[in-house]
Amino acid sequence: MAFNTAITGLKASTIELDVTGNNIANASTVGFKSGRTEFADIFTTVVVGAGSSNNPGAGVIVSDIAQDFTAGTIEFTNNNLDLAIDGSGFFQLDDGQGGTTYTRAGGFELDKDGKVVSKNGKFLQGFGLDAAGNMQPLGDLVVSEKENDPKATENISLSVNIDSRSDATALLRPYDTDDSGTFTFSTTTRSFDSLGNENTIKFDFIEQPPFRERQTLSLSTTTAAGNIEVGGVVVALANGDTPAVIAGKVIAEAANIMQRDPRIASITADPTNADNILITYKASAADVEEIVVSDVGSTGTVATNFSNPDLIANEVQAVEVATPTGAAQIFFGGVAIDVSNATVPPDTSTDVVTRIVANQTAIIEANPTIDSLTADLLSTPPRVLITYKPEEGNVAELVIDENGTGAFAAATTATIVENGDDTYQGVYQVYGYLNGTELLDIGKQVPAGATGSTTTPIATEPGPILLRFSTVDGTLTSVNNTVVSGAGTAPKIILTGADPADPSNLVEMDITGTTQFASESIVKQSTQDGFAKGDLIGVTFAANGTMVASFSNGQNSSLGIVALATFENMSGLQSVGDTEWAATLDSGQAILNPPGTGLNGALRSSALEQSNVDLSEELVALIEAQRNFQANSKTLQTENAVTQTILQIS
Q: What's the pTM?
C-alpha cells in the first residue's frame, strides 16, 4: 500500500514539475497563460461494517491543470497589426477548414489576399461594414481596398477677416486680378475635379469705394410703331416718337424697371438734355454693366449708353447767393460772414461766394459732416457747392442766414444737387477664378432684360457677387443680397464651372464666420471635401476594434470591426497549442461582440500582450515541486527498508 502511495506522489510531483517547467519555458511567449497544478487525495473505501472507517489514504492524483487567464503586461511595438486586448476577451481565429480557436496572442499580418492572419496562418474574424457603416455578419477580416477613388470637391468652407481700416479710395481702377493694387484682399483654396486633378480657386475681395455709376441713355426717333424693352420692362412706342417723348415713356416705367433691377437708385430726365435719360445706380452696386435696351418689333430705335463710374456718393447741395441788399452779416453754417453793398465797390454775389469759400475751414469745423466747399461762379446767380462726407448719406438741407439781419431778403435753404448715398459702406465685390485665370460664375445675376423676355427667370453669369457687413459690429449681414440668418449662418454661394472635368458639378461654398473687423486681413478657416486618388499606405485599429485603411491622399476607410469572444466559463476552455484554446461543453459557446462592448476589453493597436508567467513565483514553485518529489522518494526508500527488515526476521 505504501509503495503505491509513494508512487502516486512521485507521479504528481513529476506533473507539477512539468507544468512549472512549461510555465518557465513560455515566460516570453506572447499571449501565453500560465498553468497551475491542482491535486486531490485518493481515499479507498471499505465494505460497510468491515472495520474502522478511519482508513489511511491511498495517495494523490492531479485533479486539474488550471489555466490562469490573468492579463499579461501590454508592451507597445512598431507594427500596426500587432493587437492586444486591454481587458476580457479572445480573438477568434478560423483555420479555413471549419476549425475555430481563440487566442490572446495578437501578432497578426496580411496574407497575399489582404486577409488578416495569425502567425500560423489562421484568419482573424470580425464584422464587416457596409457603405453606411452598419455591421455585417461575422467573417474573415480583409483589407478589400488597395486604392481610394478620387472625389470631386462639392463643399468649400471659407472664413476670412477683411481689415475694416483699409482705404477703398486708395484702390487702383479698373479692377485687375493680376494687380494686387486693385483689390483689398485675396485668398486661394484648393479643389479637386471628378478625375482627381487638383485645382485652385482664387477669391478677390474688393471694398466698394464711395462712388456710384450713372449711365446716360440716348434714344433716337422711332421710324415705326413697336415696342422697346428697357431693363426687362416693355415700353410701347408709336411711329415718329421723338427722343424726348421716348424718354418720358421710359421714365414713366421707372418704378417697374427699378423693381426688376434693385441696384438702380433713380431714373430721371437729363436736366441738360431732354432727349436723354439719367440712370443712377446705388453706391452699393458693383461692376455695373450697361442697362439692356432692345427692340421688340420694328421700332428702329437706337440706344446709346454713356457711363461715368466715378460719380461720387457724397451728398452735394447748392446755395445760390444774391447781391447783398445792405451792410450786414450772413451766417453760413453758423459762421458769420461779413457782406455789404455799401463798400466801394459794393459786394457782388460773386464776392460773397468767394468770401464764403474762403471761410471753409471755420465752416467745416462748425459742421464736421461737410467735406468741402467750392465756388460755382458760372451759374446764374453764382452758387456755393457743399459736398458732405460720403458716410453721411442723405443730409438735411443747410439753411443760410437764419440769424442774419437782412443781407438776404429771407433765409435761404440749400437745394440738393445730388442725394447722398452711403450704401457703399461695408460692401465688397467678390470675384472667383479657377486656377487663377478663368472667371467663375459664383452667382452674379444676369442683368434684367438680358434674357430677352420679362418672364424668363434671371440666371447667373461669370462675374462678382456682393458681400455686405454691418458697419456697427463687422459681422456679415448679406451675401449677394440674401440676408444672413438670425443664427449667423450665411447663405451658400454656388460655384458653377469649378470642376472642369464635370461641368454639371456645382460646388457649394459656405462663408459663415467671415467678418470685417479692424484687424489684419487673414484666412480664419479654409476647408474642402475633395481629394485625389490615393494608394493604401497602412492599416490601423481603433480602440473600438474598427479596422481603418489609410491612403496616400489623407483619406481613411473603415473596413471592418474585430470580433472579441467571451465565455461563461473561461476555465472550461481547452488548450490546443500555439497559445490557442478551443471551446468545450464546459466553457459554453463564444459570445461575440466588438471591443469595448459588453464584457469585452478595449483594443490596443501596435501592442502585444506578454505572457502572464511570474518567474519568481515559478522558481519558488519549482523548489516546492522538487521538495515534494524528494519527500515521496524518501517514503518509497523507507518502505523498502521496512520490507527488507521484515524479510530478515523471517
A: 0.75
DSSP state of 570: G
For residues 314 and 364, give the distance between their C-alpha atoms in angstroms, rounded to a whole number: 15
Beta strands in 334-382 (DSSP E): 335-339, 370-376
pLDDT for residue 20: 85
Q: Which helix (H) or strand (E) holds 16?
A: helix 2-25
| Strand ranges for 178-221 from DSSP E | 185-192, 198-207, 211-219
Residue labelled with grid coordinates 496572442: 105
Distance of alpha carbon 94 from alpha carbon 63, whole angstroms = 31
CA distance 69 to 385: 98
Do 498 and 485 meet the contact criterion of CB atoms below 8 Å apart?
no
Query: Do 550 and 148 meet the contact criterion of CB atoms below 8 Å apart?
Result: no
Q: Write the single-letter amino acid at 123.
A: F
Residue 298 falls in which region: left (phi positive, over 0), alpha (psi -120 to 50) or beta: beta
CB atoms within 10 A of CB 200: 12
- CA dist 516 and 522 (Å) reads 10
3-class secondary-structure state, position 13: helix
Number of Cβ within 10 Å of residue 643's Cβ equals: 12
Looking at the chain, how many residues does it have? 650
> If you ran DSSP here, which 8-state letter would residue 501 be given?
T
Lowest mean pLDDT among 53-57, 97-101, 511-515, 543-547: 53-57
Please check the confidence at residue 458 and state whether its pLDDT lies above 90: no
The residue among 480, 375, 496 whose CA lies nearest residue 439 is 496
* pLDDT band, very low/low/confident/very high, at 650 (cuts 50, 70, 90): low
How do residues 43-97 score in pLDDT, each as one tens digit?
665 555 555 555 666 677 777 777 888 889 999 999 999 999 999 999 999 999 9
Rounded Cα distance, 645 and 641, in Å: 6
Grid cell, residue 1, equals: 500500500
Say if residues 527 and 580 touch (Cβ distance below 8 Å).
no
Phi, psi at 172, each rounded to 5°: -75, 150
